[in-house]
Amino acid sequence: MKSARYDILVEVSSRYDELVRALEAEIPGFRIMAKQRSRLHRIIDRILKVVTFGKMRWYLDGYHTTIRKTVWVTSTWERKDPDRRYLTLRHEAVHLRQFRRYTLPGMFFLYVFIPLPLGLAWFRAHFEKQAYAETILATAEVYGMDAVRDPELRAEIINEFVGPTYGWMWPFRKSMERWYDRVLTEVESKLAAS
Question: Cα(80)–Cα(83) distance, rounded to whole angstroms?
Answer without folding.
Answer: 8
